[in-house]
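Re-run requested by the PI after the first attempt was lost when the workstation crashed. Everything re-entered from the original request form. Ligand of interest: iron/sulfur cluster.
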Amino acid sequence: MMKRRQFLATAGALTVAAGAAAALDRDPTTAGMEGTSRAGTLLPSRTPMGPRGLELLRMQEDLRRALKKPVEQRKWVMVVNTKKCSGCFACVVACMAENVAGPGVTYRTVPEQEMGDYPNVSRIFMPTNCMQCDDPPCVKAANAKSPGAMFKRPDGIVAIDYTKFRGKKVVEAAQKACPYTAIYYDDGKLWTEGTPAPQPYEAAPSSEYSQSWHRTGGEPPSGSGRKCHFCLHRLDAGMIPACVSTCDGGVTYFGDETDPHSLVSEILRKHRGIQFKADQETEPRVYYLADDTEATDNLKTCLACHQGGV
Ligand code: SF4
Ligand code: SF4
């Protein structure tokens, strides 16, 4: 006979599984809006974990499945739904902490844009980072100055060799080539420099490219060019990027586009995803959802802002 504790555990697992199945049947780009109150109404959460929790679990499973394949058979993509972004900057902070970014280095930015005239005004936020372009002009520009400084990995990520992508001139060449202002020069400064109590977290090593980097004392990545790498070290450890797991609004999705069962593949099948500055032909691996005219117009406004060099 099933004991009470076993019964409760089984019943709990079945409830979660039923909730997960229901959540996966829903539109994945709007599921995260439940439980919050965009119109001021409190909506019930349909599952014990909440829809975003289930999306995160699914992306985690997608990642584990992808990691079992040879590296050249997976292609990472990021999908962003700007309509869900509240501009809280949690992803920016999480990214800076994850990668031990000093002043002036911001792999992830969330520029904002106001539109319209009073009383018909609105504001949108557009999370952005390196697009991991399939034809990346930054790689050519950097390697022309310092061979091997940057390279395109078979899984789509554009990576940096911190020991070669060094010096302002080398970094500036790549910065000029990038249409998305995604590259930063790390000048080695600390946030708490000159304060009475420099904080030890600033001297902590980062784990980028699965190595331990100490940027204090002029060591790389201090003196190097830096940018988003989709949290490659986390992917290698079976974890989704920090910005994706931190965002409570469910704005950003991540996964393997070669896997038809992944959440990102499902979203890109069901919705229109556009690439910014597609005319530059760099083939970005970040897609922005633009299903309706409002979303498309908003994105065009953001694009104008980005062309201005934000
Ligand atoms: S967004 Fe810029 S830095 Fe990133 S791969 Fe494309 S050209 Fe290079
Ligand atoms: S954490 Fe999410 S909601 Fe907040 S700024 Fe980043 S993408 Fe937008």
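Saved to the shared folder this time. Confidence is low (pLDDT under 50) at residues 1-25, 32-47.
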